[in-house]
């Protein structure tokens, strides 16, 4: 495809990351755009450029150096950055996102070179619409916004949390195919409680204590109103790494009247539910045939539990209240039971069933006899040998999901799960683990990575023109992911498909989400495409170079 670019010539063309091709400009393009002499005489293919850059990235032994090299490439040559990321996603995903992006956020003030998103602080209160209009791209489809208060379990990083929206949106493009120009990373800076940052002379944010209460919510209200006024009701706003108390409040407050999604709550729940559905391909039966024990009864754990209950309700055509009877929680005081109702937080009460008190996890496993044990408490090595051996005595194929991050807080390792279950466990984790060999069989641990869900989910919202996000759309995304798991994957111990086919996975999830939006009457992109998978694939951004006349 040929493109005319008036106003771009010579040096300015080379400095524009969206149009720069570096040494891939052809002889004709060099003459037409006054590039002759501004580049060495060789003309390289994009594939050769990619090969050279991958070699350069691999030369860095420190992950943060690799991250900085890739961010430099993104700012210099956008299409080459995305081609490199798409073609080498399994190798580079941990560099552009977790775990490396966490260190990048911690050191963001020191490595800051040029702004990659939009910064909205308390200084801009009353002027947020004006700030949004300063962003050069006008056709925005997805916004990822953070206030930096809970960055990847690293705590309050304030303004330096910008690395998270930037990284998430890079994955929206690479994994989900949303155009880079349609993505907007935003950090809302209301201060920080991090004393080290407040004392850091290189800190790039407001040097004041974090605003809370009315002042905080008024700023968020102005932000959401300005987004809708500037971009319309079909721009997806993804809340990212807000502290739990604000995350749930903001999601509940805006989901009825705005197109919003919280990956930490809904994305995490969807990827865990998908893993459970896929695991049952080996275990047998439906979700309603099994019991699920959650170790960790915080808002995140109960968020996962609630989505599982909704799916049981949908599959079994029973009430959500009845479906919740299949789900049990263990918190710091033991099994959550009805006799504790007076002291329980509201989100725990719906799972407080009639049962005698049980003080610890091992006794809870013995009493409840669950098929699946799901850890989200952040208590490292809490799935002891005795716990996993008990799960294995109850189940031929026990499902063990150790979801807490980082690795030091994981409830058990992959090796422990496979060894203590004598190779029978179906294992998934929040942190990555190396393959494990047990009795001459190689097991590949499955990582419950939200990147399986949110890129395809976002694309489905975009291509359907959805105006709201519902629980049914989140369930559709989980089912779409589970459907990509084959018997061959299960035989290797995988409850998620390999990341090497993530664009295919995202297209299928996108189609499921879009179909549900159409079924619910929430889609505005009409008429409805006949083949939503093919339509999703046709809408995906591809990073091959364009030819310029």
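^ Assign residues to that structure.
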């Amino acid at each position: 495809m040929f493109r005319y670019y008036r106003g771009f010539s010579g040096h300015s063309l080379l400095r524009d990351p969206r149009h720069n091709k570096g040494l891939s400009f052809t002889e004709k393009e060099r003459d037409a755009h006054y590039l002759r002499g501004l580049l060495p005489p060789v003309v390289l293919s994009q594939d050769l450029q990619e090969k050279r850059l991958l070699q350069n990235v691999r030369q860095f032994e420190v992950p943060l150096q690799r991250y900085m090299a890739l961010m430099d490439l993104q700012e210099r040559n956008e299409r080459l950055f995305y081609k490199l990321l798409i073609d080498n996603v399994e190798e580079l995903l941990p560099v552009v996102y977790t775990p490396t992006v966490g260190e990048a956020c911690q050191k963001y003030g020191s490595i800051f070179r040029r702004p990659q998103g939009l910064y909205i602080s308390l200084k801009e209160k009353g002027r947020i619409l004006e700030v949004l209009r300063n962003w050069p791209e006008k056709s925005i489809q997805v916004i990822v916004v953070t206030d930096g208060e809970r960055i990847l379990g690293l705590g309050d990083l304030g303004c330096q949390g910008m690395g998270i929206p930037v990284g998430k949106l890079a994955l929206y493009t690479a994994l989900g195919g949303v155009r880079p120009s349609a993505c907007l990373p935003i950090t809302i800076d209301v201060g920080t409680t991090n004393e080290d940052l407040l004392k850091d002379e290189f800190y790039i944010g407001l040097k004041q204590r974090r605003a809370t209460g009315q002042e905080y919510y008024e700023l968020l209200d102005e932000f959401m109103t300005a987004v809708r006024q500037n971009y319309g009701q079909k721009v997806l706003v993804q809340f990212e790494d807000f502290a739990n108390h604000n995350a749930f409040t903001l999601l509940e407050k805006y989901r009825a009247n705005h197109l919003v999604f919280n990956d930490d709550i809904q994305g995490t729940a969807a990827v865990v539910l998908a893993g459970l559905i896929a695991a049952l391909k080996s275990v047998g039966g439906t979700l309603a045939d099994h019991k699920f024990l959650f170790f960790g009864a915080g808002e995140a754990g109960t968020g996962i539990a609630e989505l599982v209950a909704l799916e049981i309700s949908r599959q079994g055509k029973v009430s959500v209240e009845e479906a919740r009877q299949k789900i049990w929680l263990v918190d710091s005081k033991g099994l959550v039971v009805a006799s504790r109702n007076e002291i329980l937080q509201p989100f725990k009460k719906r799972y407080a069933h009639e049962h005698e008190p049980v003080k610890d996890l091992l006794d809870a496993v013995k009493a409840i006899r669950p098929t699946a044990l799901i850890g989200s408490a952040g208590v490292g090595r809490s799935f002891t040998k005795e716990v996993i051996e008990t799960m294995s005595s109850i189940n031929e194929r026990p499902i063990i999901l150790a979801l807490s991050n980082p690795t030091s807080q994981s409830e058990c390792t992959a090796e422990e799960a496979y060894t203590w279950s004598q190779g029978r466990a179906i294992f998934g984790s929040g942190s990555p683990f190396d393959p494990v060999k047990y009795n001459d069989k190689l097991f590949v641990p499955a990582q419950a990575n939200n990147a399986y869900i949110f890129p395809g989910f976002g694309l489905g919202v975009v291509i359907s023109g959805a105006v709201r996000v519902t629980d049914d759309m989140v369930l559709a995304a989980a089912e779409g992911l589970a459907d990509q798991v084959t018997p061959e994957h299960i035989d290797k111990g995988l409850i998620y498909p390999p990341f090497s086919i993530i664009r295919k996975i995202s297209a299928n999830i996108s189609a499921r989400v879009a179909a549900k939006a159409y079924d619910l009457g929430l889609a505005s992109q009409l008429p409805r495409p006949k083949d939503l998978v093919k339509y999703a694939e046709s809408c995906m951004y591809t990073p091959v170079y364009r030819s310029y006349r």
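The two ends are 10 Å apart (CA to CA).
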